[in-house]
Design a protein that fits this description.
- This protein has one helix and eleven strands, in the order E-E-E-E-E-E-E-E-E-H-E-E.
- By secondary structure, it is mainly beta.
- The protein has one domain: Glucose Permease (Domain IIA) (Distorted Sandwich).
- Strand 10 and strand 11 form a beta hairpin.
- The longest helix has 7 residues.
- It is globular, with a radius of gyration of 14 Å.
Length: 116
């Protein structure tokens, strides 16, 4: 879990949405995709650092010998009314990731970005 907040699990879509409780993140929602999340967390408040699931496996890209586990993180402006994913305004999450991840580095493969 990247921040403290209420977690909503969408297992069919392999996605979770975090509605943060931390003051600096209140205007946003954090979306983590390609995750096999534990349903027990749905609708509950979860603390930063708690394990909420495991990263899913990506398809094998040209030039790779095997598929690797990874997640996709996006940050969007919170809205009062629920919307379809494409109706939100998304912002670049890298400034948040640099505060959340110790020694972030990125690697681009298969047109994806990875932070570790």
């Amino acid at each position: 879990m990247p921040v403290n907040g209420r977690l909503y699990v969408y297992s069919r879509d392999k996605k979770v949405v975090v509605k943060p409780n931390d003051p600096e993140f209140l205007p946003f929602e954090i979306v983590v995709e390609n995750i096999d999340a534990d349903e027990q967390w749905n609708g509950k408040t979860v603390n930063a650092g708690e394990r909420i699931g495991v990263a899913g496996t990506n398809k094998v890209c040209r030039g790779q010998s095997r598929a690797e586990n990874s997640i996709h993180v996006s940050v969007r402006k919170a809205q009062k009314d629920p919307r379809l994913d494409y109706d939100y305004d998304y912002i670049d999450p890298s400034s948040f990731l640099y505060r959340l991840v110790l020694n972030p580095m990125s690697k681009q493969e298969c047109n994806d970005h990875e932070f570790w």
